[in-house]
Amino acid sequence: MKPIIQFRSINDINKFGSNKSVKHPLITIVDFSKIDQSIEEGTQITMDFYCIMFKNYCTNHIRYGQQKCDFQEGSLLCIAPKQVIVMDSQIEKKENMTGWGLLFHPDLIRGTSLGAKMKDYTFFSYETSEALHLSDKEKQILYDCILKIQSELDENIDTHTQNLIVSNIELLLNYCSRYYGRQFITRKNSNKDILTQVETHLQNYFCAGSIKEKGLPTVKYLAESVHLSPNYLSDLLKKETGMNAQDHIHFFLIEEAKNILMNSDSTVSEIAYKLCFEYPQYFSRIFKSKTGMSPLEFRNKN
């Protein structure tokens, strides 16, 4: 049976990281160089926290989701609460092990403007091989944010503490958004390959009549087809084309609807059912939103 480590409280994290004192019950910063415990191969780790980890050393891979993470030297990984990390090989204490981890409970940001925006930081749901690779300048900027948070944790808690800590977390996350945007740009060639694969998968799906057997393709299906997480794929496509994954699915869907409208006498309801819409009105609404015309207006115009 695989060993499991469950971190349920900040105190659990601090004990593991050799930081015995709890400076704040909802947030902590871990210095990887001070971790004095090894982690056995195959260990599953779950946490009740948002976790942002940066490491400046090379170890063997970990798995987050179904695939190995590209979590190499100088890279940063963001993990949402309740997710499972699996160690692919034993990680032992090393003298050159450096880096930091910022862990904070959702309760810390609940009711704040950051709490309402967390869903916009989609990189917390990148489940496969896309850690954020940082330049030296980017590393320092993020570390400066960590130092500001640590400075607040070292102070006595007062009425300003939470606002200042949350503001610096938000600043750090905004920098992460910027750097992920830069990473999408620098990987433009590989992104184009993925775009080509997406278009090929969708074209084959509709041409092969898979929609009759399997229903409309989902973002999850499309992401699995190119071995990416749904959020990462949508963000990549948005950067490349201005359309997210769902928009691409709708584009091919509307093209298929246009073909049927022009090459058959099927009613709008029949076409909607043929395209796996339970409600014809919903099909007509999507069609008009994408073309500016209702299905019947499109047929009559052409």
What's the topology here?
Blueprint: E1 4-7, H1 10-16, E2 27-31, E3 44-47, E4 50-55, E5 62-64, E6 67-68, E7 75-79, E8 84-87, E9 99-104, H2 106-109, H3 113-117, E10 132-133, H4 136-154, H5 161-186, H6 188-207, H7 210-214, H8 219-225, H9 230-241, H10 245-263, H11 268-274, H12 280-291, H13 295-301
Parallel strand pairs: 1-3
Antiparallel strand pairs: 2-9, 3-8, 4-7, 4-9, 5-6, 5-8, 7-10
Helix pairs in contact: 4-5, 6-10, 8-9, 10-12, 10-13, 11-12
Question: Could you explain the architecture of this structure?
Answer:
It comes from Ancylomarina salipaludis. Keywords: DNA-binding, Transcription, Transcription regulation. This is AraC family transcriptional regulator. The structure is a single chain. The protein is α+β, with helices and mostly antiparallel strands and about 300 residues long. The chain folds into two domains: about 5-135, Jelly Rolls (Sandwich); about 190-300, Homeodomain-like (Arc Repressor Mutant, subunit A, Orthogonal Bundle). The chain is built from 13 helices and ten strands. It has helices spanning about 10-15, 105-110, 115, 135-155, 160-185, 190-205, 210-215, 220-225, 230-240, 245-265, 270-275, 280-290, 295-300; strands at about 5, 25-30, 45, 50-55, 60-65, 65-70, 75-80, 85, 100-105, 130-135. The chain has a five-stranded mixed beta sheet. A five-stranded antiparallel beta sheet has the order 2-9-4-7-10, sandwiched between helices. Strand 5 (about 60-65) and strand 6 form a beta hairpin. Helix 6 packs parallel to helix 10 (about 245-265), helix 10 (about 245-265) crosses helix 13 and helix 11 packs across helix 12 (about 280-290). The longest helix is centred in the middle third of the chain and has 26 residues, at about 160-185.
